[in-house]
Every structure is written in structure tokens, then in C-alpha cells.
């Protein structure tokens, strides 16, 4: 488990292409309200059916998994690790991410990103 502060900001800006691979497992409405730029979004309930979408992520580092507070991402991390992936839970989730001033974007035009 790592905290958002342990993910270098420079690497986070261009996720996942040029930075650390970040998987957001929150629901669609949570994602739309605010998420890390460049993160991959697969809701927890859809992860087993859509895990192949992670194949394009860099394989030389772990997949960092985030949700709102850390519970769903812990379950996703456990499942991914049991399925052969190298996955790490982001402690405190997007709540900690936002409190630490990490970059966020919203899918709602003109709206400030928020964690719901």
C-alpha cells in the first residue's frame, strides 16, 4: 500500500502513458465528478470482465489502484494480485488524493473536480 504522496507528481501528470499506471475502480458518477488525469477507469464490478484493458499499461511497474477511500481498491488489488498482476492499493483513495492537492479533472464542463 502507498499513499498518494508517495506517487511522484511529475509522473502522475501524464498517466498512464508517461507516468505510473493508475486504475480507478469507482463508479461512473464518482469518476465523472473528479479523477486523476490519465487514470484508467474500470468500476470494481466490471474489473474481471474488463481486465484485458490493462494489457496496454507498462509492465515494468505495478498498477496502482484507487477508489474513494481505499476499500474497493483493496479488494481490486487483492483480486489483481491473485490473478497474476503486480498491483498496489493507494491508501486513503481519492479523498487523500484531493486533500494532498494532487491533480484532478472533472468530466462535467466547467465544474471543479470533486470527490463524491
Helix-strand blueprint:
Blueprint: H1 9-12, E1 22-24, H2 28-33, E2 40-41, H3 47-50, E3 63-66, H4 71-82, E4 87-89, H5 93-99
Parallel strand pairs: 1-2, 1-3, 3-4
What is the CATH domain class?
A: Alpha Beta
Could you state the order of secondary-structure elements as H and E? Answer: HEHEHEHEH
Report the uncertain regions: none
Rg value? 13 Å
Structural class: alpha/beta
Tally of contiguous helical segments: 5
Could you explain how this protein is built, in words?
- It is a single chain.
- With 116 residues, this protein is α/β, with parallel strands linked by helices.
- The chain has one domain: Oxidized Rhodanese, domain 1, CATH 3.40.250.
- 28% of the residues lie in helices and 10% in strands.
- It has helices spanning 9-12, 28-33, 47-50, 71-82, 93-99, and strands at residues 22-24, 40-41, 63-66, 87-89.
- Strands 2-1-3-4 form a four-stranded parallel beta sheet, covered by helices on one side.
- α2 links the parallel β1 and β2 (40-41).
Concise structural overview:
Residues 97-116 are annotated as: Disordered. This is Rhodanese-like domain-containing protein. With 116 residues, the protein is α/β, with parallel strands linked by helices.
Keywords:
116 residues, alpha/beta, Oxidized Rhodanese, domain 1, 4-stranded parallel sheet, globular
Amino acid at each position: 500500500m502507498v499513499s498518494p504522496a508517495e506517487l511522484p507528481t511529475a509522473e502522475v501528470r501524464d498517466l498512464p502513458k508517461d507516468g505510473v499506471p493508475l486504475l480507478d475502480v469507482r463508479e461512473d458518477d464518482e469518476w465523472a465528478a473528479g479523477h486523476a488525469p490519465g487514470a484508467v477507469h474500470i468500476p470494481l464490478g466490471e474489473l474481471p470482465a474488463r481486465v484485458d484493458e490493462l494489457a496496454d499499461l507498462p509492465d515494468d511497474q505495478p498498477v496502482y489502484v484507487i477508489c474513494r477511500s481505499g476499500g474497493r481498491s483493496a479488494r481490486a488489488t487483492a483480486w489483481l494480485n491473485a490473478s497474476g498482476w503486480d498491483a498496489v492499493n493507494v491508501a486513503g483513495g481519492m479523498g487523500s488524493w484531493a486533500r494532498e492537492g494532487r491533480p484532478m479533472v472533472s468530466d462535467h464542463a466547467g465544474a471543479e473536480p470533486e470527490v463524491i
